[in-house]
Design brief:
The structure is a single chain. By secondary structure, the protein is of the alpha/beta class. Helices cover 45% and strands 15% of the residues. It has 18 helices and 13 strands. The strands form 3 sheets. It has a 6-stranded mixed β-sheet, with helices on both faces. The chain has a 5-stranded mixed β-sheet with strand order 7-13-12-9-10. The longest helix is centred in the middle third of the chain and has 17 residues. The chain is elongated, with a radius of gyration of 26 Å.
């Protein structure tokens, strides 16, 4: 294998990276790899606590693919043992949900199928850390714990915050970073990828590798991708994620809802578009920038045709305000109507489950986002108290993506 010049590798690898620790060692590792024609072993650990992969997960995976393209060895750790403990990183309290071994393995299989859309899985090593932790007896575990002090553990921000707030820290949580670090010893990693919240575990791995007379790994940490709300980290539980296995149209709708100020982060972390060109794209109309971003990312996980079709459908159904091709039928009880067969606007939106509350209905109406269609004739709803005469088959819209085909029930 002929590796590219170190400067070229560094130029590629530094994109979208917040911290490299210790940075001065990376160039030396790459140079030695080139001189000895030996690929670096690049580790990324995954705890399959859920089956779905979203774009936040793909940030370090994309970095791993860059390492692969440069000729290095990808090593995926499936944390079937660590998943039983639960990663405390960035958490203010202990995890309460416990998964069975069967759940974890089922998640792992589906997870790997999706990971294969990002990295070259055929040329990656895949290990389950239960293969070594499952063989360790109590004495071996105690010996491993004896290499880490309580003071070291309490330097973690999450543990320190919980101590200060008098929130319990359970002993098994303290073992998690030790287990993660030991994975690096077992597979002899040269580089570990992850988010900035993993710094402690990455550095602990260096200490354990040194104790075992191994070369010490370098931690390459990416920024935490914010979700579609533009503030919190992307996560399925927060409902602010874009899943890579979602339909192209669902993905496109979510891209088009992104706040403008997160666009640069998404372009930098989720695409290979030159950053100079990104600046030019972002200097134009935000809508066009979001369409370009959506099509670029969707093409990676589906194909170019699917991305183009998703963008065209969004433009037709939402961008231009045309009717969607599929509008869900919603049943409305006749008992809710007055003698003239009408119902007030705010209540109509709530009963059709187009909004979660009356206040949300009022907000949508005041924003001019609510109208109904009868035989193709569009009527805007101007006030929450407007009486709307119900005609079976009428279409009600309460915003760009909330539609209902009204049917009358008992």
């Amino acid at each position: 294998m002929s590796f590219p010049p170190v400067d070229k590798q560094l130029q590629i690898l530094r994109r979208g990276v917040e911290k490299i620790v210790p940075e001065e060692e990376l160039a030396a590792k790459l140079q030695k790899s080139r001189e000895t024609n030996t690929p670096l072993r690049v580790k990324y650990g995954i705890d399959p606590t859920a089956a779905d992969v979203h774009l936040g997960h793909t940030v370090p995976l994309r970095k791993m693919r860059q390492f692969q393209d440069l000729g290095h060895q990808a090593v995926i750790i499936i944390g079937n043992a660590t998943a039983m403990v639960g990663d405390p990183s960035g958490r203010d309290e202990a995890r309460t949900k416990k998964l069975s071994e069967e759940d974890i393995e089922e998640n792992a299989k589906y997870y790997l199928n999706q990971v294969g859309k990002v990295i070259d899985l055929d040329n990656a090593e895949v290990h389950r850390n239960g293969d070594w932790f499952g063989k360790m007896g109590l004495v071996e575990i105690l010996n491993l714990c004896g290499k880490v002090t309580v003071a070291q553990l309490l330097t973690r921000d999450d543990f320190a915050k919980r101590m200060k707030a008098e929130v319990p820290i359970f002993l098994h949580e303290c073992l998690y970073p030790v287990m993660q670090a030991w994975d690096s010893v077992v597979i002899q990693s040269d580089v570990e990828l992850g988010g900035t919240e993993q710094l402690y575990s990455f550095m602990l791995a260096r200490d354990l590798q040194k104790d075992q007379s191994l070369n010490q790994q370098i931690g390459i940490m990416s920024p935490i991708l914010v979700g579609t709300d533009g503030t919190r980290r992307m996560g399925k539980s927060l409902g602010n994620y874009i899943g890579i296995s979602e339909t192209p149209y669902e993905m496109m709708k979510k891209f088009m809802q992104l706040p403008d100020d997160v666009m640069k982060m998404y372009y930098e972390l989720l695409t290979e578009i030159d950053l100079g060109e990104v600046d030019q794209i972002l200097s134009g109309h935000p809508k066009e920038a979001k369409v370009r971003l959506g099509k670029t990312v969707i093409s990676e996980y589906h194909d170019d045709t699917a991305a183009e079709d998703a963008a065209a459908r969004w433009q037709k159904e939402i961008g231009e305000g045309n009717l969607p091709t599929e509008i869900p039928e919603k049943s409305l009880s006749r008992a809710l109507l007055n003698e003239e067969g009408a119902i007030q606007a705010a209540q109509l939106l709530k009963e059709l489950e187009l909004v979660p509350s009356t206040s949300q209905a009022i907000q949508r109406i005041k924003g001019g986002a609510v109208f109904f269609l009868i035989d193709g004739e569009k009527t805007k709803i101007a006030d929450r108290g407007d009486w709307i005469k119900i005609v079976p088959g009428m279409i009600v819209r309460a915003g760009k993506k909330d539609w209902a085909n009204v049917q009358l029930g008992e």
